[in-house]
Amino acid sequence: MKFVDEASLTVQGGKGGDGSRSFRREKFIPFGGPNGGDGGTGGSVYLKGDSGLNTLVDFRYIRRVMAEHADCGHGNQMTGCDGKDKVVRVPIGTVVWDEATEEWIGEVTEHEQLLLVAKGGARGLGNMHFKSSVNRAPTKCTLGKPGDTRVLRLELKVLADVGLLGLPNAGKSTFLSVISAAKPKIADYPFTTLHPNLGVVRVGENSSFVVADIPGVIEGASEGLGLGHAFLKHISRNRVILHLVDILPETETDPLENIAVVENELSSYSLELYEKPRWLIFTKMDKLIGTSEEAKQELVERLTSAVNSKHRFERIFFISALTQESVQTLCQQIMQQLVFQTEI
Question: Which of 81, 72, 82, 83 minimizes the C-alpha distance to 20?
């Protein structure tokens, strides 16, 4: 299964133009000196940040990118034209690696930022450069150098304020579709989400934040099982992590055990991520419709007490995306948290 936030791309810089071997030949100047010009410089390949993109899905169809070759030099000390650069647009948050050497090349973090990934070849020198006191008519010139060729591995880290984390079918996509205009695929089977979905949540006239629906984590994800590493790396830039848990899972598993599974994977993958602000969100409270208020309150208190005794969450919420119970309150609390972090 190919994850659309990872892509392989072969890039090649243009070849430099060859230098020219030429001599000045004009009327009354039968033995003019060397005047061969230099070749041009080969074009380079750049990646350019584009805030309008949010996945690497286009690179399923773009496999190879080549910059333009340069022209050769000419007589009369005329330099060949440089090859044109090739610019490839990528989403902000794209990390670039050399697939062969595992070398980190760079990261695109801003809109319109340029990142050089394949340099064009150097120009060849014309014979005019090799004239000396002992060699007045040099025939030597040099060839242009080939451009860099490398296979890139592109990885996208989603740039979002809030990340939704949880087991498959915890209600993340439904929650995102309710609080934003995003339209993620929603179904009752695991791995409905195969790439992160982004949504902008507007809390007030001039207040908003970006939420990323991270694909569901499974047990063993920290060791690469399923699409483990591809999933977990996305939350590295989220300022707040919402851990969503189905209050009455269809699989009849214990919600507390489901919490422990995701927490274990998160701590095993990265202690830095584990220490990020995390809120626990019990979802699908609409499943308790028809239950008495006393029984519902008893369940809420029991789960809250059990979570506080074993886990570290800054806040705990009980919501229903279907009925929108407590959804607006949660969004307002998130906005306040983000503003507070910014002021600090």
Answer: 72
Specify the range with the lowest mean pLDDT, choosing from 30-34, 233-237, 278-282.
233-237
Q: Is 265 helix (H, G, I), strand (E, B) or coil?
A: helix
Q: Is residue 1 situated within a structural domain?
A: no
Is the pLDDT assigned to residue 106 strictly greater than 90? yes
C-alpha span between 235 and 161 (Å, rounded)? 10
pLDDT score, position 195: 58
Let me know: does 56 contact 154? Beta carbons within 8 Å. Answer: yes
Cβ contact 238:160 at 8 Å: yes
Looking at the chain, the whole-number percentage of residues with pLDDT higher than 90 is 47
Q: What is the DSSP letter of 192?
A: -
Assign residue 119 a region: left if phi > 0, alpha if psi is -120 to 50, beta otherwise?
beta
Position 77 in a domain: yes
Spatial strand order of the sheet with 86-91 comes to: 86-91, 45-50, 114-118
Domain carrying residue 146: 6-156
